[in-house]
Design a protein that fits this description.
It is a single chain. The protein has about 325 residues and is α/β, with parallel strands linked by helices. It has two domains: about 140 residues, Medium-chain alcohol dehydrogenases, catalytic domain (Quinone Oxidoreductase, Chain A, domain 1); about 140 residues, Rossmann fold. The chain contains ten helices and 15 strands. Strands 3, 4, 5, 6, 7, 14 and 15 form a seven-stranded mixed beta sheet that branches. Strands 10-9-8-11-12-13 form a six-stranded parallel beta sheet, sandwiched between helices. Strands 1-2 form a two-stranded antiparallel sheet. Helix 7 links the parallel strand 12 and strand 13. It comes from Hoeflea alexandrii. InterPro entries: ADH-like_C (IPR013149), ADH-like_N (IPR013154), ER (IPR020843), GroES-like_sf (IPR011032), NAD(P)-bd_dom_sf (IPR036291), Zn-ADH-like_protein (IPR051397). This is Zinc-binding dehydrogenase. It holds the Pfam family ADH_zinc_N.
Length: about 325
């Protein structure tokens, strides 16, 4: 099979498109022939050695893939060859065939496209966990979404609306702001002049701020929080890890809440599975619909990752073997 291999940590140009042996399932494992592979911002950090986890090199990056079950281990009973599934991995998804532990393999309804299934894993899973478990977002609250046109941002907009919130999205261009509105945001603002705009549009402050950006945008959000608000730290797409004047937390009486989806999946697998069921149900009901930005050949994984790291995409990028 063909796969993308990270031979050693370094620039994206180090990635290699190689022939590897086909995987064979162990007792509790499943082999899936990939039809769609999700590309995520952390994938680009991982291959450069900039992420929290550092697998031993060489390795195949990628956390999610959807496709057809090709083979199963002796102890696997919830799926069979020929079934449509989506899988979650620590790494190994950027390949024509994917090996996954059976407890990370989820059957797909016939109505769900493979690309949508990939989107609902990491990006939508992160946003869902952030707003549901970490923020406890309530109907009628005001949700501020920074990085609104990214895959997690658009997911946060859609999930926030499904949970009954008023959503203010922030994005860097008019095209991205339009995508936020089309996804369901009540209002889309630029970063320029954001502090004054939020004073006008949310004079009492925002109840929940979803921040995958960091940098100067975090500073604005930190000053725009309402009393009893929750400021969610998702990531640092700007490349700058901000510093928080903690007197703001004291004076405004809000909470700073970290969101690390990987730890959540590992430590609370039953809650994670319940979250997946809810997202799948919302998709079936038409309440949510991932925005697929583009499809790229598997061989172009480096190009796709660069575009995401440069914050050029709108929504989800998919690799196609």
């Amino acid at each position: 099979m063909k796969a993308i291999v990270c031979p050693e940590y370094g620039p994206l140009s180090n990635l290699e498109f190689r022939e590897l042996p086909d995987p064979e399932p162990g007792t509790d494992e499943v082999v899936v022939r990939a039809e769609a592979i999700g590309v995520n911002y952390p994938d680009g950090l991982l291959v450069q050695g900039l992420y929290q986890m550092k697998p031993e090199t060489p390795f195949v990056p990628g956390m999610e893939a959807a496709g057809i079950v090709e083979a199963i281990g002796d102890n696997v009973s919830h799926v069979k060859p020929g079934d449509r599934v989506v899988v979650m991995l620590n790494n190994g998804a950027y390949a024509e065939k994917v090996l996954a532990s059976s407890n990370r393999v989820f059957p797909l309804p016939e109505t769900m496209p493979f690309a949508d299934a990939c989107a609902l894993m990491c990006a939508w899973g992160t946003s869902h966990h952030a707003l549901k478990q970490r923020a406890n977002l309530q109907p009628g609250e005001t949700l501020l979404v920074l990085g609104g046109a990214g895959s997690t941002g658009l997911a946060a907009i859609s999930i926030g609306k499904a949970m009954g919130a008023r959503v203010i999205a922030v994005a860097s261009t008019s095209e991205k702001q339009k995508a936020c509105i089309e996804t369901g945001a009540d209002l889309a603002l630029p970063y320029e002049g954001l502090r004054d705009a939020l004073k006008q549009e949310a004079p009492g402050g925002v109840d929940v701020a979803f921040d995958p950006v960091g940098g100067a945008a975090f500073d604005v959000a930190a000053r725009a929080m309402a009393r009893n608000g929750r400021l969610l730290v998702i990531g640092f797409a700007s490349g700058e890890i901000p510093k928080l004047p903690v007197n703001l937390v004291l004076l405004k009486e809000y909470s700073l809440v970290g969101v690390f989806w990987g730890a959540f999946v590992a430590k609370e697998p039953e809650v994670y599975a319940a979250n997946n069921r809810e997202l799948f149900a919302w998709h079936a009901e038409g309440r949510i619909k991932p925005h697929i930005d583009e499809n790229q050949p598997l061989s172009e994984a480096g190009t796709a990752l660069k575009r995401i790291l440069d914050r050029g995409g709108i929504g989800k990028t998919i690799l196609v073997p």
